[in-house]
Amino acid sequence: MSESAAESITEESAAEVVEVLEEAASDPLVVLTGDLQRLQAEYSNYRKRVERDRELARDMAVAAVLFEMLPTLDDLDRAREHGELEGGFKAVADQLEKLTAKLGLEKYGTAGESFDPQVHEALVHATSSEVTEATATAILQPGYRLKDRILRPARVAVTEPE
Asked: Does the keyword Coiled coil apply (predicted)?
């Protein structure tokens, strides 16, 4: 096929497309249908955006409330460690911990795990020949995370190799 034949086919195709578009633009039904489809798409995007923003606001509100509850949860842990959590107060503490777990609050930090500055806050530093890498040897205050967000890093004593 020669170049002039390809150009004539292209010119003819372009002319046909222009003609079809002009006919569609002059038909009010086609114009109104296009407008309606665009409006529906805009509304659908708006609903998705509002729902996403609403979910984000909910997550932020839950995180703010749980963050304020962390000192209370620490007090409950200390009371449990000292054997002072008994009777009806123990039932209330258990319910509170179940509720926070249901909302997605997760307690983390165990002695002996490797130190990670992304999730740990080092408060005490020591060296030892017994460890091969930086290790959280004592958990001074547990850390809490909500889903993938750290509400409070675990406060730890870190031991590094000599």
From this structure: yes
